Amino acid sequence: MRQPKYLPMTREEMNRLGWDELDVLLISGDAYLDSHIHGAAVLGRWLVEHGFRTGIVAQPDWRSPESLLPMGRPRIMAGVTAGALDSLVAHYTAFRKKRSDDAYSPGGRAGLRPNRASLAYTGLARRAFPGLPVILGGVEASMRRATHYDFWDNGLRRSALLDAKADVLLYGMAERSFLAMARLFSRDQARRRAAEAVARERPPGSAYAVSPGSEPAGAENLPSHEAIAKDPSLLVKTALAFERQMLRGGPAMIQRSAGRTMVFEPPEAPLSTGEMDRVYALPFTRKAHPSYTEPIPVEEMGKDSVVSHRGCAGGCSFCSIALHQGRSIQSRSEQSIRDEIRSLASDPAWKGSISDIGGPSANMWNASCAADRSACARHSCLFPKRCRHFRHAQNEQVAMLRDLAKIPGVKHVRIASGVRHDLALASDGYMRALAGEFTGGQLKIAPEHVTERILTLMRKPGGRGLDEFIGKFTAYSAGAGKEQYLIPYLMSAFPGTTDDDMRNLHSWLRKHRMRPQQVQCFIPTPGTVASAMFFAEVDGEGNPIPVARTDAQRLRQHRLLVPDPAPARGRPEGRFDRRSPGGERRDRPPRRVPRGKPPRGEGRGWPPRRGDSGRSPRDGRGFSGGMPGGGPPGGRKGGDRA
Ligand code: SF4
Fold first, then answer.
1. Final residue of a domain: which of 208, 231, 259?
2. Which residue puts its alpha carbon closest to atom 3 of ligand 1?
3. By residue range, what is the domain housing residue 328?
4. DSSP H helical segments within 364-425, as ranges?
5. 0.70 cut: is pTM over it?
6. What ligand 1 atom has the least distance to the C-alpha of 373?
7. Do 295 and 186 share a domain, yes or no?
8. Distance (Å) from CA 72 to ligand 1 centroid
9. What are the tens digits of pLDDT across the range 143-181?
């Protein structure tokens, strides 16, 4: 089937393509940007590539089923995603204030998708298309696939599948599993009894519900939702089990919840280089659908960036990448990357600069594991020190970047963010090239903290490595005659952090004459090990840890590093709240956010700081997520941090 210029959003576009009906309708919480950074666009084009007529309804009115009807009822199925971010991360700041803008919406306007968009859109699809299979995916569903802590409710929630009542939930990037669903539901019989067909087929990368007693044989038992409610430390064990399954595969896992049993099949196999090349060779225009009259901010952020790989071997405990894209690195070939850049350079309007090239991490292209992953017991390939089986290819990456810089029309190839600094030190050639050739004045790095105890909880490198990186970067920059700066990303209020730890971090910054420009107050996003630690107030081994839990405690830690930018009513800058010596006046249980309401635009702080799952959105790829399991494929580091 011929690829359309854009996936259709209207009946007129379908007519122009000669499509009398759609096979698959995608429902997305983000505006339709026809780009590799928009998961719905990737999976939509992927399905077209395999012969399925696929259209998109972006940011529909969630109160009206008619908003899904412009292209009629699809023949096979509907796929639902909240968008590139969890909708609550998109709508609220770390202190639960509503954000006033949204980088994934036209005009940057907030309020164009509902809270818990996965649930709202699934209900909408059920009402618009009774009896049609509905597939739930994207980062919101992926990270909420089992019982999880919900920061905005300040409580446990069961699997999003059970709340949304979709037929199946696909986690991860989902090219294989979404295609498998389209093929499965092409059959009339499977379509009529969708949930049963899924339970029979057991597609990798899927989660679905069965009645107790119908669980697959040999499945690993996870603590039930009710057991976790009684003993929060079981949530940490559950999150660790999902990390293991994502890396090692193995048997299905099951979790009982309110009279149902959730089944989690092992993840789909990583894409081969050939498959990655095929995905990224899809003819994205890199532009918003022409129906939009206002710019979509993320289009600008991602237009000059190139994804070289997916996955991150780092396994940071707060990051969604390990649970969504996985720790296995899936890389494109050099030829595929070169073809993409040649295509960019063929546009006379292109300015000649690749603003950022990489994946969730910048320096893991073509990295691999030389051992048997299915037997791996580690949480990270790099922490506490690099695994002896981990193979990096940083020297080859430098050679590739130099070749890419020689493509006619290319003026600069930059790495702007995502450098895993401990890994960079493994190759002096990489360090020299990074500072001397591929940094454009500023480089963002993510030490997050400097206290060893906190770094251990984060699974982040620390110690002398960071100082060594700073020293080498500075020396090689000077050697190349360049004045360049490192922008450190730091985190406050991570579980286990005390006020003294923040003061320690402040001292370190002063010692290195760095200003804390990028400090993120930890947001316990659903599904991660760190969020489970926040909820349970224990570390991965079950030992108690201090947790800044209330908004006031969290803000106080934050203010130890970042003075209040807008002192209220004459309050001295840098102080949290003068009216109470401990700053505890607002120290009360966290508020719940209203259900089903869109943000009203009184917030601040968009876009979420960082790219990945976050997702600066360092370049729009910062966050993983998107269509069933998709998301900015190759989304940049950071998970759902915001
Ligand atoms: S064996 Fe080592 S390199 Fe392989 S997945 Fe495990 S930690 Fe990573």
1. 208
2. 390
3. 274-566+573-578+600-619
4. 394-405, 421-424
5. yes
6. 5
7. no
8. 48
9. 999 999 999 999 999 999 999 999 999 999 999 999 999
